[in-house]
Amino acid sequence: MDHHDDDHDRGLSHDLQVIGEKIVERRRALAWLASVGGAAIVAGSAAAQMSRGSVTPGGVITVGGGGRSTPTPTATPAPTSTPTPTATSSAGCLVDPTETAGPYPGDGTNTSSGSTSNVLTTSGIVRSDIRSSFISSTAVAGGVLVRITLTVVNVNATCAPLSGYAVYLWHADRQGRYSLYSAPAESYLRGVQVTDANGQVTFTTIFPACYDGRWPHMHFEVFSGLAAATSGRYAVLTSQLAMPSAICSAVYADTTTYPTSASIFKGVKLSTDNVFGDNTTAQIAQQTPTFAGSTSAGYTAAAVIGIAR
């Protein structure tokens, strides 16, 4: 029979010793449990802070989930929007080049048949429809209708329109003749207008012919005001407008109205013209009016005239 070494039935002294040892072990156990519980409470508190997120004095956010520290993000500036371009003297407009007034300006700068011809000092020169003569004849110049609007701007003020300026426009008729000169009895296709608040003037006229030696064109002079224009010889700019090639071809196809222009136009080039030929691409672009319309209904045209004020 097996016998077990039990802790009972061994006497009072033995029992007291065992009880003392148990008390010591219990105290150690309680101390251990207390230490473990405190650590657990601390850990729980730290975990709670991590889950909420806290910022250290160094600018570091401590975040839960792995306990990885992430630097405080630096605010990224909002993207700077690209400004809308505005017209400038280098991009929106430029100074029109000064060109010759040619042999037929009628502005008092030359003579015709031995006498000075200055239509600018003649009553009736201020008009928008320049198709008719107004001095000694009332003949009306025939041809394809053109209503052209010219806008005078100041290139030194971001292309601001110039109001109150006077524009004198003149050009050849459908046969390549100029009134007061090669058509001495006529005064048509010449006129002066004053720019409005938008810096604009509009002339009703006809499409000019193409004549020997020149690309089809219109002449103009700009004056600081009407008084300067009608006094004569005070222009702040003298220049010319080049007619667009495609419109020239369309208009000159009517050889009844424009009897000689089609054949002459085949032999001229804008690049070798003695007025436009040495201009830059940008200058030519500004000197060439935009056209809309047709030969039957007529055309509207527009161009910018840049001067430095």
From TrEMBL:
**InterPro entries annotated for this entry?**
Intradiol_dOase_C (IPR000627), Intradiol_dOase_core (IPR015889)
Q: Where is the composition biased (Low complexity)?
A: 47-60, 106-117
* Sorted UniProt keywords: Dioxygenase, Membrane, Oxidoreductase, Transmembrane, Transmembrane helix
Cell division is among the record's keywords: no
Care to name a GO molecular-function term for this sequence? ferric iron binding
- Where in this protein does the record put region Disordered? 47-117
Q: Which Pfam families match?
A: Dioxygenase_C (PF00775)
- Domain annotation Intradiol ring-cleavage dioxygenases: ranges: 147-213
Q: From which domain of life does this come?
A: Bacteria
Positions of transmembrane segments: 29-48
- State the protein's name: Protocatechuate 3,4-dioxygenase beta subunit
Phylogenetic placement of the source organism:
Bacteria, Pseudomonadati, Pseudomonadota, Alphaproteobacteria, Sphingomonadales
